[in-house]
Amino acid sequence: MKYTYLLTIPFMFLLLSGCMYPQSERSENQIPNEEQLAVVQQAVETYREEEDGLVPIQTKDSDTHIFEKYLIDFKQMLEKGYLSELPGNSFEEGGVYQYTIIDPEDDLQVRLIDLQTTEQLRSVNVRLDVYRQEHTYPAYGQQITDQIYTVDYEKLGLSEPPTAKSPYSQADLPIVMDLDGKLYIDYSYDLNQALEEDNHGYEEGDDIRYLLVDNYPFVPAYSLPYTVEDGQAVFMEED
Fold first, then answer.
1. CA 129, CA 167: separation in Å to the nearest integer?
2. pLDDT in tens for each of the 239 residues of the chain?
3. How far apart are the first and last CA of the chain?
4. Three-state DSSP class for residue 47
5. CA 23/CA 115 separation, integer angstroms
6. 226-239 b/e with 16+ CB inside 10 Å = b?
7. Most buried one in 68, 144, 195, 225, CB count within 10 A?
């Protein structure tokens, strides 16, 4: 595995699937309520204790991105009485967040996927799919690494480079693609801020995305692994 410095233009990738999140005008559905998150966290822990180590998660393909792989199955939790109602900000209740577990075996932390960010990535992917129907190759822009490119936004009929709003900093994070045309979000801006602010013990070769997972209610959805080198967030690229 080799490590490649991230450029000042952030980038990333991951093919997005799924549909637009349900719409709701209730303001409580649009914010990451810490109390709701804590209630779900306790319910998931109780579930595992009382259900012989099982965890209420939806079945996903083995190659599903790590932060989208263990979505909480609220139907199970409601039916078995571990929750009396759904979190108001959850996708299932018309909110803009999916609740996910980091690792059902080793790390039972409950976190949120911001579906507003997901929708921004999806909208670019729709344009990319249309482009691919008429062209042999994806709309590659500038080459960033051997495996990562910016998106040629003009080829997709966009007026500016596509971005997704960060759930951490609210910054506009660039969207990039890999060699297969899969789209990802570049969280290098957020990661570099976290590296500066957190008294971390991460070393070269460690996946530093968990700096965000451990300190915020969100996961960096649709991201690539990063490590740290000379104090900066860098891509981890497979040979």
1. 26
2. 433 433 333 333 333 333 443 444 444 445 568 899 999 999 999 999 999 999 999 988 888 989 999 999 999 999 999 999 999 999 999 999 999 999 998 889 999 999 999 999 999 999 999 999 999 999 999 998 888 899 999 999 999 999 999 999 999 999 989 999 999 999 999 999 999 998 889 999 999 999 999 999 999 999 989 999 999 998 887 65
3. 5
4. helix
5. 11
6. bbbbeeebbbbeee
7. 144
Alpha carbons within 13 angstroms on the beta-carbon side of residue 175 total 29
Cβ neighbors of 213 (< 8 A, separation 6 or more) are 67, 102, 109, 111, 219, 220
Looking only at the bridges linking them, the beta strands covering 232-237 and 226-229 are antiparallel
DSSP annotation string for 84-142: SS--TTBGGGT-SEEEEEEETTTEEEEEEEEHHHHHHHHHHHHHHHHHHTT-SS--EEE
